[in-house]
Amino acid sequence: MDQRYATHPDQIAGLDTQALRDTFLVERLFVPGQVTAVYTHHDRIVLAGAVPAGTPLPLEAFPELRAEHFLQNREAGIINVGGAGTVTADGETYPMAKGACLYLGRGVRDVVFADDDVDADVDVEEGGAQFYLFSAPAHTTYPTVLAQPGEGTVRELGDQLTSNRRTLTQLIHADGIRSCQIVMGFTTLHPGSMWNTMPAHTHDRRTECYLYFDVPADARVLHVCGEPEETRHLVVADRQAVISPSWSVHSGVGTASYSFVWAMAGENQAFDDMDAVPVAALR
């Protein structure tokens, strides 16, 4: 488990490209045959990628959590961004196609990630399951819930004229799958649209993380971060994640259309609790 410590906005001005990437970008989260995790001290969020690659993978309690099992004091949302797979939680197996979302509440002990056919010799590049996990501390327990692809609250946003026509699917939120503090879903850009989340905004009461996926191999997303008046950018590839502190804007433009999982945790679960920044005010 990699650890990323909390940051102050004044640090942005002094970071060069590599330091910016080391602080906010998670470049290698999906490693075949492993559960790879990053712990950020911003709202004590954990990001993890699980790639079974033909061998079932248990979710262990990392020593940094000081817990008997991973979800002893936490909850998690899991979205499959790869081929068909399953997640088994305390003995019950949940089938997860690409785009399915599973919420696991505080207290679930045993979690195992697997490909759909555990006996097959799976090639990750050719369609093996790839699970993205977003976890935050939880003070109460909510039941395990599975949302299949096509379920959830769908919002059509943006306009083709401004290159940001996109479909946003809310999965874990106050009017959907209930959680202690996680809000989670994903957004898919329509063909010909490249901008996400415009106008840019901050969440002064929440940390948000983006996982970009379905980014073509020869394409990249320029993710805008930093304070509105002191922006920087990260060049992001497929299946890389960005940690966005409460004081940072989070927006981006791709060289091709793409999708991204957005997830946040913090003071509240109000989706529209954001401080928009007019495009003309960005610097």
From TrEMBL:
UniProt xrefs under InterPro entries: KduI, KduI/IolB_isomerase, KduI_N, RmlC-like_jellyroll, RmlC_Cupin_sf
CDD domains: cupin_KduI_C (cd20491), cupin_KduI_N (cd20294)
Repeat recorded as keyword: no
Cofactor: Zn(2+)
Keywords: Isomerase, Metal-binding, Zinc
Cofactor binding notes: Binds 1 zinc ion per subunit.
Entry's Gene Ontology BP terms: D-galacturonate catabolic process; D-glucuronate catabolic process; pectin catabolic process
Entry binding sites for Zn(2+): 201, 203, 208, 250
Pathway stated in the Swiss-Prot or TrEMBL entry: Glycan metabolism; pectin degradation; 2-dehydro-3-deoxy-D-gluconate from pectin: step 4/5
Known EC number: 5.3.1.17
Function: Catalyzes the isomerization of 5-dehydro-4-deoxy-D-glucuronate to 3-deoxy-D-glycero-2,5-hexodiulosonate.
Stated name of the protein: 4-deoxy-L-threo-5-hexosulose-uronate ketol-isomerase
Gene designation: kduI
